[in-house]
């Protein structure tokens, strides 16, 4: 098939669709207008138009409600559990296994193992005191730290 023929057909397609839609709507309005004229003959033009819009709105609202009711009904039928599964024993998991226990709102008081001392004697301080002027203590500390670092080097 030739490309120019395809382009010609596709170019004429919107005009054909528009013409068929105009013919359909004119035939539809030609049949509906006499019926509406008989029903609304007592009303003036503005009132007729207002009444037609109100009727169209009610019809659209009715269709929306109908579609939503059908959607809800179909959702309920698909969510139902098959009877062979629902008739079996129900397995329940206690909430303690699913959720962490509630945390307290405040922290508990700190309980000391012993009462704090008001005064420290020399004998009490001696195990914790290191003289900064003694080089042999610090050299041993530095040597052990360097040895640890060098052991980690491949």
Describe this structure in words.
- Among the domains are: 1-39; 44-80.
- The chain has 154 residues and is mostly helical.
- The longest helix is centred in the first third of the chain and has 37 residues, at 3-39.
- Helices cover 66% and strands 0% of the residues.
- The relative contact order is 0.02.
Global structural class: mainly alpha
**Beta-strand share of residues:** under 5%
Described by strand count, sense and barrel closure, the largest sheet is: none
Over all CA atoms, what is the radius of gyration?
Answer: 46 Å
Residues in helix, %? 55-70%
Give the total of beta strands: 0
- Average pLDDT confidence is 80
Shape: elongated
Report, as a whole number of angstroms, the end-to-end distance.
78 Å
Give the low-pLDDT segments. Answer: none
Counting DSSP H or I runs of 4 or more residues, the number of helices is 6
- What is the N-to-C succession of helices and strands? HHHHHH
